[in-house]
Amino acid sequence: MNDFQAPASSRWPYSIRALRHRNFRLYFIGHAISTLGTWVQMVALSWLVYRLTGSAALLGITTCASLLPQLLVGPIAGAWIDRHDKRRLLLFTQTLLGIQALLLALLTYSGHIGANLIVIMSLALGVLNAVDTPLRQSLLSRFVDKVEDLPNALALNATLFTCSRFVGPPLAGLLIGMVDEAGCFALNALSYAALIFGLLAVRMSAGVRANGTMGNIFREGLAYALQTPSVRGLILGVLVVNVSASSYAVLLPVFARDIFSGDARTLGWLWGAAGFGSLLSTLLLAGRQSAEQLQRLIILTAAFSAIALLVFAASTHLALSLVAMAVLGFGVTINNVGTNILLQGQAPEVLRGRVVSIYTSTRFGFDAIGGLIAGQLAARFGGPWAMQIAGTFLLIYCAWQLISQRITARQSAQANDRATR
Predict the structure, then answer these.
(1) Tens digit of pLDDT for each residue in 83-127?
(2) Given CA atoms 221, 2, 83, 86 in this order, what sign does their dihedral have?
(3) pLDDT, tens digit, for every residue of 266-277?
(4) 8 A C-beta contact, residue 242 and residue 39
(5) Cα distances (angstroms) measured from residue 93 to each of 125, 128, 402
(6) Is the model's pTM score more than 0.85?
(7) With helix as H, strand as E and coil as C, how does 99-159 read?
(8) Domains in the chain: ranges and CATH
(9) Is the CB of residue 179 less than 8 Å from the CB of residue 47?
(10) Could you identify which of 102, 206, 277, 297 might form a hypothetical disulfide with 330, taking C-beta atoms 3.0 to 4.6 angstroms apart as the criterion?
């Protein structure tokens, strides 16, 4: 139990039960405002890149620069996180993220921004997020004083992300026309203050810290992930889904302008449709789900995501494409959030920072690699072809997983029959 957390009321509805914990409520409110600002900046930056350069390849490079550090730095950051006071570290990273957004706003407003500076600023954002993302995820278990409320806290935390993903992109589309991209970046810089104030009001002890050298702590976490079959399988699924299905994010400006002859508002609606699907998925995950049900749901919705990619790639009708985006957002989020719930549910407290960092580095790192590949394919063959390739790859993986599961189930049944004879 958190040493300084007051007893929680049990009158909260079951689907939002984690909000009965004071520390989680403070985090939840601050993070809600901060995440909305993050989505506004993300859409504004992608539109700025394509407006200035018209390059699909640069969209992929920029996305890769903002996400790839999580693959390279994330696992090491997890070992560092487990050695320190997580709340103080989060205050520090949130402050630096606010400074990064403010600097981006000033460069854009002054007219000094260009392709090289955009990549550099995206890289700086990626390095900060490589520490900030697993840090926030691993702290969630400290914000609730009952372990049975952790899955709900993780689902509600994801709901913040998906609600912002639903509201933020259309809002960004409006703001870009009203205050331009620099104004969007400045608003994001201001939004970080909400979470900083929330963290300052949290009352909790420093928590358990890992002992030993950085190398030994890192190897201990890596060995746990590689030698635990269930963890290894979940990480593989996150890798495949994010290198394929999540690549749609890079290509949306291409479809908005070139396929649908739209503007920033069209881009906002496409992002918003994906966000709506993600929101539905987190509402589903906030309810009661057993581990077995969640594992089946993850592979099923991955197949839905593959089909949605193929439909979106072939569609020239905005309404159909919005539906495909909603299905895609639903499937990708079920996979990512569901995997996070399963991993944190079985990870020991002292290993949680490292397990979460391996998960987030895989999720965002291979999202970056997928975005880079998608951008290069789109530059060479066009956006629809790039998305068709991603959808086909994911569909093949899902078929392989389903066949493997049936073979494993059949072998297990045969072994049980022999044991009972």
Answers:
(1) 777 788 889 999 999 999 999 999 989 888 888 888 898 889 888
(2) positive
(3) 887 887 888 788
(4) no
(5) 11, 7, 41
(6) no
(7) HHHHHHHHHHHHCCCCHHHHHHHHHHHHHHHHHHHHHHHHHHHHHCCCHHHHHHHHHHHHH
(8) 14-420 (1.20.1250.20)
(9) no
(10) 277
